[in-house]
Design a protein that fits this description.
By secondary structure, the chain is α/β, with parallel strands linked by helices. It has 8 helices and 8 strands, in the order ααβαβαββαβααββαβ. It has a single domain, classed as Rossmann fold, CATH 3.40.50.
């Protein structure tokens, strides 16, 4: 996934979704954070929620930072799947602002739902109005949530909120809760146009 993990290695203060993710995690939960970066989210949840947290990280530098932050982290590529984890072995599995950079998106989401009783996914909304304007002027979007140029981006599967809603319906995935943000503020009207970050709390439709 190239430079993705480096981009994900932000402090908790710089990530609008971290505080909201924390609201969706129960105290003492067992949590798996995929593409955990330097382990900031798991460190925060451990302090505030007394969670048992485990991370998965590919990038060497971020893996070392997570280890130094006291996070139990496995160095592996998400694209290889989660076969090493038993079904329903975690209360929550998190994929935070990483969905757009994985190749086998559908397979990874279903694997998360197999491994976790609940799944939290966050991603930048490609349908955000500022992104649309940049495309209309003839350029690929560049923003805080999509900081790369077209030639060095790790993002391979950008989607809109509407796209992800359709994916969940077709894949029999139950949306427990959805939040849409812009500049750390919740958006409730015309979310697919006005929101730049989407957050989903998911369960398998089979459960």
């Amino acid at each position: 996934m190239g430079n993705l993990e480096k981009n994900m290695a932000m402090s908790a203060d710089a990530r609008a979704d971290f505080a909201l993710i924390a609201q969706w995690v129960a105290p003492n939960a067992k949590v798996l954070d995929l593409g955990c970066g330097d382990g900031s989210l798991l460190s925060q949840l451990r302090k505030t929620h007394n969670i048992r947290g485990y991370g998965v990280e590919k990038d060497d530098a971020n893996w070392l930072k997570a280890m130094n932050n006291g996070v139990d982290v496995i160095q592996m590529d998400l694209e290889s799947g989660l076969s090493g984890f038993e079904a329903q072995s975690f209360d929550v599995v998190i994929l935070s602002q990483t969905l757009q950079a994985v190749l086998n998106t559908e397979a990874i989401v279903h694997e998360m739902l197999r491994v976790g009783r609940e799944v939290i996914v966050t991603f930048p909304n490609f349908g955000y109005w500022r992104h649309r304007i940049q495309i209309m002027t003839g350029n690929m979007p560049v923003s805080d949530n999509l900081p790369y140029q077209w030639y060095d981006t790790p993002n391979v599967h950008l989607c809109t909120i509407n796209d992800f809603d359709d994916f969940c319906r077709k894949s029999n995935i139950k949306v427990q809760q959805r939040l849409v943000l812009t500049d750390k503020k919740e958006v409730h009207v015309m979310t697919n146009i006005r929101g730049n970050l989407a957050m989903y709390r998911l369960r398998s439709g089979q459960s």
